[in-house]
Amino acid sequence: MAAEETYLTRDGEGALRRELKQLIETRRPALAQKLKEAAAQGDLKENADYHDAKEQLGFIEGRVRHIEAILQSAIIVDDSGPSDVVRIGSTVIIEEVGIGEEEEFKIVGSAEANPRERKISQKSPIGAALLGEKVGAKIRVSTPDGKLRFKIIDIR
C-alpha cells in the first residue's frame, strides 16, 4: 500500500519548523537537565520528579520524530495568489443554504488542521466537498449531523 501524501501550506510548514526548533533547542535540554537533577536525588524507583521528567522527555522525543517525518515527506502547496477554485490553502466563505449564516474556513492538509482556528482538512467532509468548486457553487455534505447544503460565497 502506498504511503499517504501529506500536504502543508507554507504557514503550516513554518509553524511545524518553529515548534521543532523550540522542542529541540529549549524543551529537550531543559527536561534533560531536570532528569539529570532528579537522577542525582538517589533512589529512582520512588522518585516522582525523575519519572515525570522521563515521561515528558519521551513525549517530546516522539513529537520531534513525528514533526521530522511530516516535514521530510510533506508536499508544500503554494497557496499564494488568487484562485477561482477552492484548493488547499484557500480561505473559503460558505453559508448553509436556508440558514444564511456565513462561516469562514481555511482548507489545509490534515497535518495542520485545527477546527478551533477554522482550519479544516482537505479530507474532512466539508473540505473534500469544497475542493475544486467555484464561487456560487452549491455542495452537499454528509456530516455526523446529517446531510447539509452549502453555497460558496467567496474564495480567497
How confident is the prediction overall: mean pLDDT?
90
Say how many strands there are.
7
CATH-level-4 superfamily name of the largest domain: Transcription elongation factor, GreA/GreB, N-terminal domain
Q: Numbering strands along the chain, what is their spatial order in the largest sheet?
A: 5-4-3-7-6
Number of discrete domains: 2
Descriptive overview:
This protein is 40% helix and 24% strand. By secondary structure, the protein is of the alpha/beta class. It folds into 2 domains: 7-77, Helix Hairpins; 91-155, Transcription elongation factor, GreA/GreB, C-terminal domain (Chitinase A, domain 3, Roll), CATH 3.10.50.30. Strands 5-4-3-7-6 form a 5-stranded mixed sheet. A two-stranded parallel ribbon has the order 1-2. A hairpin with a 2-residue loop joins strand 6 and strand 7. 19% of the residues are buried. The mean pLDDT is 90.
